[in-house]
């Protein structure tokens, strides 16, 4: 890479290059610190034209490129495998327009999700998806991974809200798919190929996103349940609520172990390891508190609800702090799966009958069938020793339920070896063929997804 430094300096300028090993270290490492790249150079372009020139040069010289947004991937999707060039979109962070008539925002891909919401707050709108990493994840990365998050029950998947994209192809050509029409029935919708493609087909540089109005009211209910069956019965009832915004599930054994890591938070209950907890958010223009309270109370003897915004945020913090707290407990294998909601507990019991073995527990978006299953080990050696056996079982169980090995985190490096099992040989073959069409020299995010 060093022999190309002057060439990249001519394209992006010295101020848009990172060569210091200290500054490169966090860019070479994934959020979970599972993967470690060896890149000696990162570039931070400031325009689509600059991205185009970088990719054109890399394609001509067979230089591998890893696109990187907020680097919050759980699967090593934005981390170099070897010494690839890191192309960070962090400086392409302009919000270009919000159309108040259509409620469509146009922005560059490096805009941080929280920054976008802060901007839209003025207009009483928000992004139609929400993630725990909202303070660092970026628009382009969200789109490239078709990120899920906390609002899928209410709004549906992210891809439903992407109306247009600007994408730079591996050969440097800028593909203009920007579009602010809610209806466009003119053949194959090419932008959908790039949503969820994890930066393997092109680099997203701009997007048109349909935004969601901020609800006038939000009400959170935190419930304690005796068993998992009660949680499923509650879910069936809650699905009838027109104003259902979120339905989140946590095992008591997780919340109990999270207590030492959340000393600043007041626990809504005395968390018990053998209990189950559900957080439900209701949102809309006008919420009848008594209506929801009475119906939810039928499913539990223990229920609390927020009296103000501060309490609402505190309740959500209990749910959102779970992933980061798990990583403070030891070395974690975390699996993000789509399976039928009523199979969550059965799934965990199949992996470790009677929950014996290393500490294992699950939580997640019960409302849309997305389980986060976690196994915590005291040492890296112990984790690696168990990983292959556990993953083989997890993949087979997920396949038997017609589920998905990635609900919202993507495939990246972590799950690419299981893609042919997940998709089937024929479908996976067409995915590989698409890669060859867009990137015949395989320069873009190599050894990811496919």
TrEMBL record:
Q: What keywords is this UniProt entry annotated with?
A: FAD, Flavoprotein, Oxidoreductase
Q: Where is the FAD-binding PCMH-type domain?
A: 35-214
Gene3D superfamilies linked to this entry:
3.30.465.10, 3.30.70.2190, 3.30.70.2740, Uridine Diphospho-n-acetylenolpyruvylglucosamine Reductase, domain 2 (3.30.43.10), Vanillyl-alcohol Oxidase, Chain A, domain 4 (1.10.45.10)
A family per Pfam: FAD_binding_4
The UniProt GO MF terms for this protein read:
FAD binding; oxidoreductase activity
* Cofactor(s) named in the record: FAD
Matching InterPro entries: FAD-bd_oxidored_4_C, FAD-bd_PCMH, FAD-bd_PCMH-like_sf, FAD-bd_PCMH_sub1, FAD-bd_PCMH_sub2, FAD-linked_Oxase-like_C, FAD-oxidored/transferase_4, Oxid_FAD_bind_N
Q: Which GO terms describe its cellular component?
A: mitochondrion
Which family is it part of? Belongs to the FAD-binding oxidoreductase/transferase type 4 family.
Provide the protein name.
FAD-binding PCMH-type domain-containing protein
Q: What is the lineage of its organism?
A: Eukaryota, Sar, Alveolata, Ciliophora, Intramacronucleata
């Amino acid at each position: 890479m060093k022999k190309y430094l002057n060439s990249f300096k001519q394209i992006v300028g010295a101020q848009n290059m990172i060569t210091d090993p200290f500054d490169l270290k966090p860019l070479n490492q994934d959020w979970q610190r599972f993967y470690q790249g060896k890149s000696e150079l990162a570039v931070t372009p400031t325009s689509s034209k600059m991205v185009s020139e970088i990719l054109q040069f890399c394609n001509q010289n067979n230089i591998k490129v890893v696109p990187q947004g907020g680097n919050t991937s759980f699967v090593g999707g934005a981390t170099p495998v070897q010494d690839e060039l890191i192309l960070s979109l962090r400086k392409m962070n302009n919000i270009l327009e919000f159309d108040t008539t259509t409620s469509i925002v146009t922005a560059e891909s490096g805009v941080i999700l929280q920054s976008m919401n802060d901007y839209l707050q003025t207009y009483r709108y928000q992004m139609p998806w929400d993630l725990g990493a909202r303070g660092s994840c970026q628009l382009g990365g969200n789109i490239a991974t078709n990120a899920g998050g906390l609002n899928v029950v209410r709004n549906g998947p992210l891809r439903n809200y992407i109306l247009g994209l600007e994408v730079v192809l591996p050969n440097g050509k800028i593909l203009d798919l920007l579009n602010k029409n809610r209806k466009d029935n003119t053949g194959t919708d090419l932008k959908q190929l790039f949503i969820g493609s994890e930066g393997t087909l092109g680099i997203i540089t701009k997007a048109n996103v349909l935004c969601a109005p901020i609800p006038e009211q939000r009400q959170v209910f935190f419930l304690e349940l005796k068993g998992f069956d009660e949680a499923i019965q509650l879910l069936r009832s809650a699905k009838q609520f027109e104003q259902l915004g979120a339905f989140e599930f946590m095992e008591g054994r997780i919340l109990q172990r999270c207590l030492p890591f959340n000393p600043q938070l007041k626990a809504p209950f005395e968390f018990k390891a053998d209990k189950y907890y559900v957080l439900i958010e209701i949102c809309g223009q006008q919420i009848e508190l008594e209506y929801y309270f009475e119906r939810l109370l039928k499913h539990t003897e223990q229920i609390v609800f927020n009296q103000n915004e501060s309490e609402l945020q505190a309740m959500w913090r209990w749910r959102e702090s779970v992933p980061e707290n798990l990583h403070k407990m030891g070395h974690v294998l975390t699996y993000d799966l789509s399976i039928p909601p009523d199979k969550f507990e059965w799934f965990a019991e199949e992996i470790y009958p009677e929950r014996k073995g290393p500490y294992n527990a699950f939580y997640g978006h019960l409302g849309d069938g997305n389980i986060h299953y976690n196994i915590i080990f005291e040492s890296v050696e112990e984790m690696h020793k168990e990983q292959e056996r556990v993953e083989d079982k997890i993949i087979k169980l997920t396949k038997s339920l017609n589920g998905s090995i990635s609900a919202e985190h993507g495939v990246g490096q972590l799950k690419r070896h299981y893609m042919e099992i997940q998709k089937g040989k024929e479908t996976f073959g067409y995915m590989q063929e698409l890669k060859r069409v867009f990137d015949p020299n395989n320069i873009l995010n190599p050894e990811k997804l496919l």
